[in-house]
Amino acid sequence: MTHVIGAIVAAMLAAQPDASPPPVDEKLLNAFDQVERDVRRLGDWSQQSAIIRDAVRKVWQRSGWTDETDAYALKVAEEVSAIPPWDFPARMDKFTGLLAERYQLNDEQKSRVTSLFYQESFGFFLKNAKVVIDQAREVVGARVRQEPFTPEQVARWARDGAPLMADGRARIERIADLMRQDLSPAQREILQRDFAGFERRFRDMEKMRTEWADGRWRPEDWGLEADPIQSGQAAPAPTDQPAKSGRTPGPRGLSGPTRLLPHDETTWVIYVRDFSQRYRLDSAQRTAADSILTELVERAAQFRRDHANEIARVPMPARTYDPALAPIRRVFEELKARLDPIPTGAQRLLSGP
Question: Whole-model pTM above 0.85?
Fold first, then answer.
């Protein structure tokens, strides 16, 4: 089966060899497959995951989710989201592996927990498929077209998402209840702390969802205030028609309207994309450019993790020049320097001045 949902079913059957495959409507499979194609249009997932990671960290920090269980939940969110969403089994392997590590599960316990999460994930999808697919396509489509989200859109998503949140919470509670029956007292103690943290974060999210449903949503709520698409500063979405000049636009200087932020590594993808378009890089050259981007984004992100408290004290407008973020700005300069030798002389001549 080529569908992602098919991979989920296959993994469920691997976890429960005696089970029968659940019936799935073919139209549902096709719709889910279309979502996968839409997500792939966003480009290299390592770049998308860097944007997601930065946004999630901002949400955690601003929400005051700072205790040990919050830190663990953040680690899980970051490591799972780094894996492309179309590789659901790999995401589930990562998730259950982190659970096994935290709770020191033996092989039998891990197998049962994995089976529980597969069952509930599949049940959640089947029950809420229409809303999940419709919202996913709308969200991803806006990102592909480089259109910012609006408070009106988010209000509708928040209202339609209320049953999903309730169902998701009920399923997590059911999993936790079943897990307790199979854990030692020490393991149950960890689960009790983690579930209390989950409930606290869920209450906070439900409060935010209610505000968003009333139209009170801001990009900062999702950590997107510096996102070039959300701020309307991204380059126009690529089309199949060539520019009138016969060339695609190249990277702009930073003295004009800001399309990327040297101090924010989640926006560097704009520079690399424009660089690749300007010089018409071939597949191998684009791979090299993307590899450099991935390496340097991670280096900048590591600096940000290591100096989170210091950076948090810098007001957003001052981050373009404040010394606290100078090392990140220097990494951006390194990115430009390392990309520069990639185009050939002929590609440079064709690109014009």
Answer: no
